[in-house]
Amino acid sequence: MAAQPLSSPPDSADELASALRSVVSRLKRNMRAQSAYGDLTGTQTAVLLRLERDGPASVSELAQAEGIRTQSMGTAVAALMAGGHIVGTPDPDDGRRTILSLTKTSLTMIRKGRSARQDWLSRTIRVRLSSTEQAQVAGAVALLARLVDA
């Protein structure tokens, strides 16, 4: 589905927010399609990405970071462990806790997925946008960063 450009500036912040949400959602779907994580759920994917970004963590730390119940996170973690995506080792400071970390296979999968998304987006920008439009997108990215970096 081709993007429908706004024929004129939105009349309100509400209209702009709606248009932006729609475009960002479609962009996310397109990028997600470039590198599938197999049959992983959104929560499982979020766990892998969080472990990659923040390093090893316990189930309760992951649950708190993702804003879900520890029991729900336990279910996601069990599936990831069964699939060979993460491993658990006893916490050296508290043997009752398990510290979870990525396997090398998962780390490779994450990096390949990120590279595939980056390649797709770079190629799409080069092919579909003129250099003037690319400069406009660069300006828009700076504005979007202001929205999210409060």
Describe the overall structure.
With 150 residues, the protein is mainly alpha-helical. The protein has a domain at 42-102: Winged helix-like DNA-binding domain superfamily/Winged helix DNA-binding domain (Arc Repressor Mutant, subunit A, Orthogonal Bundle). Helices cover 66% and strands 10% of the residues. The protein is built from six helices and two strands; from the N terminus they run ααααββαα. The protein has a two-stranded antiparallel sheet with strand order 1-2. Strand 1 (86-91) and strand 2 (94-102) form a beta hairpin. The longest helix has 25 residues, at 104-128. The radius of gyration is 19 Å and the shape is elongated. The two termini are 32 Å apart. The model has no long low-confidence stretch (mean pLDDT 90).
Summary?
This protein is mainly alpha-helical and 150 residues long. It has helices spanning 13-34, 42-54, 59-66, 70-82, 104-128, 131-148; strands at 86-91, 94-102.
Helix residue percentage: 55-70%
What is the average per-residue confidence, as pLDDT, rounded to a whole number?
Answer: 90
Structural class: mainly alpha
> What's the helix count?
6
Query: In total, how many beta strands?
Result: 2
The radius of gyration computed from the alpha-carbon positions, rounded to a whole number of angstroms, is 19 Å
- State the fourth-level CATH superfamily of the domain at 42-102: Winged helix-like DNA-binding domain superfamily/Winged helix DNA-binding domain
The CATH architecture name of the domain at 42-102 reads Orthogonal Bundle
Oligomer: single chain
The CATH class designation of the domain at 42-102 is: Mainly Alpha
